[in-house]
Amino acid sequence: MSTPTQGSAHAEARRASTANIGAYIAITLEQLLLRALALSPLIYAISARRFFGAPRAHYAAIALLCSIPLWVLLVLPFRYRAGGQLSGWLRREGPPTALSAYPQWLGRGLLHLVQVLPWLLPLMAYLGAYYYYMNIADFTTFMSMIRGVGGLIGGDYVHGVILLALLLLVCLVLAIWGWYHRMPLFYLPWRPSSENDARLHALHHAKPQVLRRVVFKNLLLVLPALILVGYILVSSLTTRMTGDIQMDLMIVLPAITSFDFPKNDLTAMGIALALVYLPFVLYRRAALAAAIHRSADRA
Prior knowledge:
Elements: H1 9-19, H2 21-38, H3 40-48, H4 59-89, H5 102-135, H6 139-151, H7 157-182, H8 196-204, H9 210-238, H10 245-258, H11 263-276, H12 281-298
Helix pairs in contact: 1-12, 2-4, 3-4, 4-5, 4-12, 5-7, 6-7, 8-12, 9-11, 9-12
C-alpha cells in the first residue's frame, strides 16, 4: 500500500506521529521496556557496583556480556515490529507486526547481525584489546603499548593517545556504516533474503538522496542529548583530574570502562535522556521510515 507524500520526510513523520499519539507513547514505552530488560544485568552491576561475585575489575564487562544475548533476543527482533508499525502509520507496507511473527523477526535479526558482523569486527577487536590492556595487562605494559603506537610516527606518549583515538573513530565509523547500510530492512516489506542486497543497493543509490538528508537531520536532533550527557560526564571527570596527561588517562579510562560515576551524575544523565532523547526516538525513526519508502519508490 502506498500513498502520495507531501513535504519533507520529517514533516510526514510529524503528521503521522501526531495522528497516532497514543500508539506513539505505547511503542516508545514498549521499546524502552525491552531495552531495560536487555540491559538489566548491566544496570544491576552499575547500580550495585558488583555482579554475582565477579571480580571488581571485571564485573561491568561480565554484566555487559550477559546483556548481549538478551539484546539479540529482545531488542533486535522487535525492531522489525516497530518498523512495521511506523510504516503502517505512513500507509506503507512494512514487516509484519503481529507477535506471532517473532520467530521470523528473530531469524531475520540473526541474519542481519551476521551480515553486519564484518563491519563490527574492527570495533570489537579494538574494544577487546582495550579491555585487555586496561584490566589484564600490567600498568607498564599498557604505557609501553601507547608509547609504541606513538613511536610508529616518531612520536611519544601523547602521539600514541591521539593515534589510538583516531583508530577508535575509524572503527566506529565502519561499524555505523555497516549498520546504516542494512538498516532499511527493518522498515521494508519482507522479500526473499537473496533479493536484499540488490534492494539495498538500489535504495541507497536512489536519486535524490532523501535517506542521507534524513539521517543527517536526525543526527542534528540527537546532538542536544549528546551534548547534555557529554557535559555531565565531563563535569564529573574534571573533578578528578590532576593536570598530568598520563595520570588523567588512568583516571578517565577506568571510569569509562566500568562506568564508575557518582550516582547523582548517573541520575542526572537518566533525567537528561528521558527529557531530550526518549520522546523523539520514534519521531526520528518515522522520518527514517518515510525516507526509506520514498527512496524505495524511486529505486
